Every structure is written in C-alpha cells, then in structure tokens.
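PROTEIN–LIGAND DATA SHEET

This sheet pairs a single protein chain with one bound small molecule, fe (ii) ion, given as SMILES. Inputs appear in the order they were entered. The predicted three-dimensional arrangement of chain and ligand is reported afterwards as a token string under its own label.
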Amino acid sequence: MNCRYYIPMLNLIGRGSVKEVGKEARNLHGNRAFIVASEGAVGEAQAKEISDILAKEGVISHPFCEAVPNPTVSVVEKGLASYQESESDIIVAVGGGSAIDTAKGIGLLATNGGNIRDYSGANKSRHAMPPFIAISTTAGTGSEVTQFAVISDDANHSKFTIVDWHTTPNVSVNDPEMMLSMPPSLTAGTGMDALTHAVEAYASKNATAVTDAKAYKAVELIAKSLLKAVKDGADIDARENMCYASFLAGAAFNNAGLGLTHALSHPLGGMYNLPHGLCNALLLPHVIKFNMDRASGRYSDLAVAVGAGKAWHSERENCESFTRFIINLSREIEIPGGLSEVGVKSKDLETLAAEAMEEAIGATNPRPYSAQQALDVYKAAF
Ligand SMILES: [Fe+2]
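PREDICTION REPORTED AS:
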C-alpha cells in the first residue's frame, strides 16, 4: 500500500518543552498570538502561562478562554470574531482536544471564510490556516498532531468531523509538566482515547508499516504507564511515557484512520455530551469482539505488546487476552462498566446506530458493518 504521511513539521516532546513556544512563535513570524484555551480557572491559568512564555520573546497575547468540552459551532464563531478583532498573526492553542479543535475551526474560517459546517468531510478548505502551535495538556486526544477536528452542532446536538490537512499544526507540544495537575478521571479517559487511537490505527484497512510502528509502540507505552499516571498524577516518568504514547497514537491514526469504536463514540458524545475517551473505553472491547474474525492477527500482535498474550498462543486466544486486558485496565482506572451506567438510554440506541452509519471515520474499520450490527455493538456495551 502507498503511504501519505502527515504530521506537524516540528514536534516538541518532553519535560520543559513548552518553554520553547515563544522562540517557535517567532520562527513562524508571529508577533501577536491569539491564545485559545478552555473556559474556567484551569484554562485561564494555562493561557496566562503561555502568555508569559510568549512575552519573553516579545510576542503579544490575546487570550480567548471560552473553549467548551465537545466544542460547538457557536464557540468557533465567537472565537473567529475575537480573532479578527485582535488582529493576531498566529494561533496558539493550549488545552485538551476541545481547545485545539476550537482553534482549528477558528483558523479555517479566518483564512477560508464561510460556515464551519462547510468544512465537514475531507479537505474542503482552499487556504492554509494562520501559523498554528498546538500545546496539549492531556495525553490522549492527539489533536495537536492531527488533521482532524470534531465539532458539535448546537442546533441539533450532532457532531461532525473535519479532516483537512490545512488544520495540521505547524508545531505540536507535549510537555508532561503541563499535565501534572490533570485529575485521575481525565487522565483515565484521555489515556483510553489514546489507546483506542492506537488500536484502531493498527487494525485499520489503511495501516502501513509506518503507522504500525507508531501504533504498536503507543500501545506498549500505555500498558506500561497509564495505570501509574492515574494512580499517581505526579509520576513524571509515567506522564512523559503517556506524552510519547499520545503523540505516537495521534501520528498513527492521522494517517491510517480509525474505525467502528470512534464511529459509535461520536454520536454518543453528541447526544449526551459524554467525555469522548470514556465512550471509547466502553465500546472498544466490544468492537474488538465484532472485528475479531477479520483482524485477529492484528489484535494478537497487540496482546503480545501489552504482555497479555504469548507468541505461541493462537491468534484467537491472544485476541481474547487482549480484550480482557482492556476490560481489566478500564476497571483499574475506574471507568464505569457500561453505557447504561453513564446515563445512556436504551430507547436512543437505534437513533445512535443510524447516526453512526453517517460517520465516515468508520470506513477504515477492518470489518464492514450494517446499522443492525452497529446497534448490536451498542447493546453489547450497554
Ligand atoms: Fe479519539
């Protein structure tokens, strides 16, 4: 298979790497930075920290601390107005996927105009975004590395996915020191999102040797470090391993694509405003069971990577070991046991399955699926 490999042109990973952001903003000819961060005290503190770093290089900041979880069309539109008013020449996002995806939406509209809904789908924009630095403060979303943005439409409580290489940041930053205060539940959810990115990229129909290398190593690192990072948020080695894992998993799925877990997860997030990583964690074991006959060799490899499987076991045995490993890890990091426990209603499952069929992100799943099969996976995860 031929390979097209997209990734930010510079990726800063490791302790203290965020301190280089001012220098890199200057390298991108930035004089006035529009900082996109989450609403509330945490987002405001993160924006202040970045503003101080930028100021040391003489870069003036204009903070926009209004990104919300499952970022919405209306926040993107408000952010665009603020960006234009600020006369900024570079965008710096700091936060989790919500802040970074909001910044991608603002950046696309800033140079391309129109309505953010126009960019749903693949490569709809004509012009590059303004220079863009994405600083991740969670280890999971991968948005700092990718050409993906997921936006919620406030008008109808649905989500749409933008896949556009113009949204790939120029510079990504994964600094574990920015993640030390992340609470256990957020560490758990975002970590399971990273695991899902790696597993879906590895089993994807579009996987290549390049994406396999990234995804396999990400799964290994997550098995070694996610539980430690959840149990002890100050464990800087575990946090740093999760930075690398998140980056690797993001690079893998940015190029190999995802699968049925994400196709099922997005409608859940849209309808119930549930955390994305939590939805993935609840669905992933059931998607692996559904895919097993078409991708047993792939899941078997990953079972060996996490130490749950053995090279001399059958692929099927290893698949089952891998599924058990994911369920046990979820339990240890206190992910709830099923969709019903997080408020999902059985009466909504058919609607959710119909919406999942509209998710182009499922096209690279190793096994094709019907609406009935999507519904069956929701029921199994219920
Ligand atoms: Fe994800």
